[in-house]
Automatic annotation (TrEMBL):
GO MF terms, alphabetically ordered: unfolded protein binding
Classification via PANTHER family: CHAPERONE PROTEIN SKP (PTHR35089:SF1)
Family label: Belongs to the Skp family.
Name used for this protein in its record: Putative Outer membrane protein
Keyword Coiled coil in annotation: yes
Pfam families cross-referenced by the UniProt entry: OmpH
GO CC field: cytosol
InterPro entries the record matches: Chaperone_Skp, Skp_dom_sf
UniProt key word Cytoplasm: no
Length: 178
């Protein structure tokens, strides 16, 4: 991630140096977009977030149920430990270990599924947003439009921030597509 950010900064610096050093008197028009804000505040982004939260809640309820089963088996084993034969105790301990392994696998599978769904939800949205930003850049005569993420842009004037315009255009494009 740091290499990617460094690469963006290096590319940006090189572009401005070339423009300045070349004596080119072309107007430089810069815009800034916060893609995370667009994702979180666009209608599709809100819907994707809601769908993801629903998925997480359903996975969590399954995990909670399994966790209760494990706790019950563990409590039963502790209560019956003194009266169980060695073989019966060993069998219950093996059952508990098996349930714990299944629980851990279920947790891992659930996390992977949530990550995959998040990627599916946001990937399509980001692709559409980038197309809108490209069109805005071309139509608006921008030299460069930067992503204002993770503190990459430390300062910018409010009038070059295109985030709200991108959200509006994206929502409009999605409404037309329905």
């Amino acid at each position: 991630m740091a290499e990617k950010t460094f690469g963006k900064i290096l590319l940006l610096a090189a572009a401005f140096i070339l423009l300045a050093a070349g004596g080119v008197r072309a107007e430089v028009k810069v815009g800034v977009v916060d893609l995370m804000k667009v994702l979180n505040e666009s209608e599709s982004g809100k819907k994707a977030k809601s769908n993801l939260e629903t998925l997480i809640k359903s996975k969590q309820s399954v995990l909670d149920e399994k966790g209760k089963e494990i706790e019950k088996l563990k409590a039963d084993l502790e209560k019956q430990s003194s009266v169980l034969s060695a073989d019966a105790k060993k069998s219950k301990e093996e059952d508990l270990e098996k349930m714990l392994r299944e629980y851990q696998r279920l947790v891992g599978d659930s996390q992977n599924e949530v990550k995959k769904k998040e990627s599916e939800f946001t990937g399509g949205i980001l692709k559409e947003i980038r197309a809108i930003v490209d069109k805005m850049g071309e139509d608006g005569g921008y030299t460069i439009i930067l992503e204002n993420a993770d503190g990459l842009v430390l300062f910018s004037k409010k009038d070059i921030n295109l985030t709200d315009v991108v959200i509006k255009k994206y929502n409009e494009s999605r409404a037309k597509g329905k």
